[in-house]
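seq as requested:
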Amino acid sequence: MMRTPTPPPGRPRDPGRTHGTVPQLLQTLQVGFDFPVHFTRDVFAPSNTRLADAISRKEPSRRHRVLVVLDRGVAEAVGDLQPRMHRYFSEHRDRLLMLAAPMVMDGGETIKNDAGALQSLLRKLCELSMDRHSVVLVVGGGALLDTAGYAAAITHRGLRVVRVPTTVLSQSVSGVSIKNGINAFGRKDFHGVFWPPFAVLNDILLLETLPRRERLGGLAEAVKAALLKDGAFFGWIRERATALAQGDEQALSLLIQRTAQLHLHHVAIGNDAFEQYSAQPLALGQWAAHKLVSLSKGGLRHGEALAIGMALDTTYAQRVGLCEPDVTDAVLHTLSQLGFRLWDESLEVRRPDGKPRVLEGLGEFREETGGELTLTLLRRIGEGTCVHDVDEALMLDALQKLREREAGA
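struct tokens:
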């Protein structure tokens, strides 16, 4: 009579012989991502090899298939940009192949609210038979980077994305982020994925034609990072507020590099890049900013809304005793010096019960950051602290203080 052999150590027994016990298998995955962030000038100059090098860095002997997605505002502002792109690809044709003429699309929140734009992108990726070694080269502001990055991430479970951000905000923050998404159901970034870029190339030359409003919007993220992570950097911003507001190239270049460095460092040291747990992002003012963009129906840009959100959160932090009045004064004065308005009519939009609808942003931000409300408030310049509860009465009082201050100004 044959006997069933005993399984070797470490191997599961025959499920039919476990006699009611349920085996458990625990699989641990560690997936490494790396991407270079280049700071350059005139990225599409044929002699500038940074773009070609970045795209071919993993497979230097391959000719890489590339679809260019281009922000319409950038294409119109830089009239010779598309011919320069074609010359660049021709010069580097041993490594790069442009599969079609650049796909020119609207930027700003318009594209993130347009489901048809996403479908157009996905259809194009399908028509060109893009595979996981193909590259989507996105040239534009943060909203286009978000939308095109989302389309690439859900195609074949992830195409390579190379970003050429064209705003101060996207060069310093969203361009180096690993988040991609579109808006839906009245919520900002309701659909989204974590998908790191393959490379990022920040070209200071592309900021020359940037409208003043767009240039200023990016400064808010720099202020936020400095307030939470680097007090000396905040002091540097205060001293150069006028130059930054006027678009001084050297000051902007240094600001972008330092802000990008702070954001990359924050993600790296947190050991939770994909925010699986209770996320603690650089979130000063963020909950209000997201809601204000929605309430204003895009009338407020992200940076403008963020400046208001930071002013509100800092005023609230003073009201609950977290920071001193001189901290609030420094933050609000610097934001004003940079050119930001610290009140908007969207703050007046109310629910049927009379409460400002901006407060709904607290619940929505709780969902976004992992289930528990996590706000970052200031203790002092360069140091933030996380809180998980908000005193609604004091937040309403902070709103009133902000309204009175802006009316007086």
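The two ends are 97 Å apart (CA to CA).
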